[in-house]
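Methods — Computational structure assignment.
A single polypeptide chain was analysed. Its primary sequence is given first, followed by the predicted tertiary structure written as structure tokens.
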Amino acid sequence: MNQTSDLLTLRSVSKSYGTVPVLHDIDLAIRDGEFLTVLGPSGSGKTTVLRLIGGLEPLTSGEIRLDGRDISGMPINRRPFNTVFQDYALFPHLTVAGNVGYGLSVRHVARKEIARRVAEALELVQLGRFADRFPAQLSGGQRQRVALARALICRPR
């Protein structure tokens, strides 16, 4: 792994839940601009790797580095990553606009800026006219695009 060209690196990353090991000494290097697909059978640790990178789970051992800096202990809200979950994880009590703007609101972005960026993100995924609907009023594909807009609005690395 070449530190100068690698944007994100996992070094000897391991994760256990209690006494059950899930990942053991994973090494991974992702370069800037690279597109990565993680494939494997059910239970192989794909989601766990993504949760570790995003800060949704603490490491058991190893380190995660971004631009050469250890981010293993960095809180989730300071990491420049977002995850689109398989089940979309939309808040049923929030409108489409509320779901998309949620990440910005917890980062205390000004309301006008949130409104501007929500409109921009919804246009990007062609859902501008659905801003006032709730997730239950959308098709599966529309819910998936809401989740994508919610991930993109925070401008992840």
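Note: The mean pLDDT is 91.
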